[in-house]
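Quiz preparation item.
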C-alpha cells in the first residue's frame, strides 16, 4: 500500500518558512512521514516552483500526515489504488538527477577517499547530448521503455544549490516527459516506489504517472 500527498504553498508562506533550499524541504517533508525508530528515508518527493506557488509531491508506503507548518487546506493526501500500476502505458513526468560516476574523489591533501577499502567515485551530471541515452538505459533497467507514440521532451539541466551542515552542494536536475510502455510490471512497480536515479532525498527520481487507457 502506498500514499500520494501534495502540498501547495503560496510565495508568502515559502518566504516565511525559508523554503528556498532543497535540503530545507527535505527536513520539512520528514515531518509528514515521521521516522519509526531509526528508519531510513522511505519516501520520494518532488518540488515544483511556479510563479505564484510551490508544489511538493510526496510518495510513501506510510500514510503521510499534515505537518504543523502547513495549513490543512494546503495539504492533500490519497491512497494509491492497488490497480494503479496494472496498466500497460502511462504518460510520465520525471524530474531526475542524471549522473555518472567518473573520477576518484580526493581529500584536500590529495589522497584518494576510500569507503570500505574502495575508492569513492565523484558523480558528474550527464552531458546534455547523452540525456536520451541515460533515460533509455534507466527505462530498460526499471521495467519500461520510452514509447514513440509521443515525442520525448527533455528539459535543460537546471542546477539547484543547497547547504548541508554548512557545506554547499549542487545537483543538476532534468525534466523528462513523454509516454512509457511497461515491459516488466515487477521492476516497474519497484521503480515507482523507490525512484529513478540519484539524489532521491533531494526531490529527484519520483515518477508522476497518468495511465493511458
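Solution:
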Amino acid at each position: 500500500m502506498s500514499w500520494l500527498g501534495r502540498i501547495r504553498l503560496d510565495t508568502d508562506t515559502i518566504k516565511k518558512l525559508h523554503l528556498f533550499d532543497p535540503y530545507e524541504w527535505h527536513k520539512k517533508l520528514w515531518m509528514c512521514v515521521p521516522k519509526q525508530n531509526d528508519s531510513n528515508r522511505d519516501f520520494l518527493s518532488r518540488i515544483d516552483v511556479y510563479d505564484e506557488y510551490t508544489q511538493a509531491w510526496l510518495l510513501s508506503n506510510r500514510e503521510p500526515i499534515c505537518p504543523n507548518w502547513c495549513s490543512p487546506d494546503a495539504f492533500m493526501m490519497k491512497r494509491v489504488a492497488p490497480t494503479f500500476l496494472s496498466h500497460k502505458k502511462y504518460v510520465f513526468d520525471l524530474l531526475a538527477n542524471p549522473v555518472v560516476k567518473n573520477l576518484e574523489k580526493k581529500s584536500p591533501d590529495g589522497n584518494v577517499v576510500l569507503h570500505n577499502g574502495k575508492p569513492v567515485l565523484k558523480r558528474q551530471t550527464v552531458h546534455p547530448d547523452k540525456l536520451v541515452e541515460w533515460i533509455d538505459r534507466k527505462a530498460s533497467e526499471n521495467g519500461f521503455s520510452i514509447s514513440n507514440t509521443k515525442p520525448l521532451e527533455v528539459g535543460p539541466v537546471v542546477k539547484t544549490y543547497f547547504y548541508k551542515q554548512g557545506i554547499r552542494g549542487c545537483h543538476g536536475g532534468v525534466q523528462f516527459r513523454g509516454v512509457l510502455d511497461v515491459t516488466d510490471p515487477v521492476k516497474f512497480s519497484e521503480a515507482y516506489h523507490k525512484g529513478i536515479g540519484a539524489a532521491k532525498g533531494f526531490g529527484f527520481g519520483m515518477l508522476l504517472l497518468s495511465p493511458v487507457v
